[in-house]
Amino acid sequence: MKIFKTIAYSIFLLGIMLKFAHVLGASALMLLAILVMCVYLLITVIRKQKDTGKRMPDIIGFVLLMLYIYLDARINFYPLHWMFYVAVVAVVAVTIFQARNKDKVKFPFLLMWIVFLFSIVLHVIPSSKVHYAFYLLNNSNRSESSRDWYYYSWYLYHEGKFNESLQANDSALVAIVNSQMKAKNDRNEMDELKKDSIILTNKRKELITHTWNVLYPE
User: Fold this and answer.
1) Which whole number is the average pLDDT over 42-59?
2) How many secondary structure helices (H) and strands (E) does the chain include?
3) Where are the domains of the chain?
4) pTM confidence score
5) Between helices 56-76 and 107-124, what is the axis angle to 10°?
């Protein structure tokens, strides 16, 4: 049994290190860790061992890993919405087990619920607000963050907030101009900014005609 837990935590820690290093595949590794922990959890429950209660910290750790994956996916807008519903089932199962065994509420259980409630909040908040809060609200460089404004415009558009989406597109174009003023001596950077400006202008037309269905052109 311990082999599953050891492998899962090892893979997850490796995934975190790769994520901090911005290496592709880090999230996939963390998902693999979740799957291994699922095997561990299922074996623990199916065997109905008497010491299952002693393993509860491990099970709660598994749920916290799952919630971490979901929060990371929500903040970075990865297509892992299903992870939230899996986490709901897991949290409910752990809570029922705690209540049935009349176990004392301990810190790991409280932490799980705190993270779970935060996950619920992020789940129900519109994507545009999540993006603004994490990428624009406290971004001291947002006057030059054209892509952040562009993504913000995309989320607003698909929430039916067309006027606000247009304003966000304007902010993205202004950010392009601000960046061009700083990068006027960097030819490569200027070329990239020119391409982004063309994309923004074209997407603005799609936004106005309500035909914006693809985030970036192929």
Assistant:
1) 63
2) 9, 0
3) 2-124, 128-208
4) 0.73
5) 20
